[in-house]
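Quick one, tokens below. Sequence please?
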């Protein structure tokens, strides 16, 4: 990169701000959001197509009809996927939407825990990492 008269390195992004871990984590978070969005869409389609795929759990506070859970996963999955794409494009609105939608994704998987315990724990862990990465890296979105 060549130096310009104003002392910048020629990139539109400020240099030397933010943690390299957080910057790399944000890109990884965007990719993870696309992947978990696709998984949530598949979960939703499966729940809509065949109610017997998931175990009947009996009495549970957050027990909904599996068709309702299918629509919840499908809608949240589509929104998370779109927010992940916006993050990879570097949009500030995508980062904010990513934090909000991933928080919603974590809450949904907490409520979904009795239906798929292992996957829900993994999804919650991935969601917490995504939220951390999006909250800590502000350098990509700083105004020059």
């Amino acid at each position: 990169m060549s130096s310009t008269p104003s002392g910048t390195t020629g990139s539109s992004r400020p240099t030397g701000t933010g943690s390299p871990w957080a910057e790399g984590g944000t890109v990884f978070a965007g990719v993870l959001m696309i992947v978990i969005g696709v998984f949530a869409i598949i979960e939703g389609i499966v729940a809509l197509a065949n109610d017997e795929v998931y175990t009947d759990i009996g009495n549970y506070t957050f027990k909904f009809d599996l068709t309702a859970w299918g629509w919840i996963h499908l809608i949240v999955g589509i929104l998370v996927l779109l927010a992940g794409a916006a993050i990879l494009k570097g949009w500030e609105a995508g980062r904010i939407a990513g934090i909000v939608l991933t928080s919603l994704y974590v809450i949904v998987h907490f409520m979904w825990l009795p239906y798929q315990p292992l996957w829900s724990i993994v999804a919650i862990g991935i969601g917490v990492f995504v939220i951390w990465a999006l909250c800590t890296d502000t350098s990509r979105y700083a105004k020059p």
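The radius of gyration is 19 Å. The CA atoms of residues 86 and 115 lie 30 Å apart.
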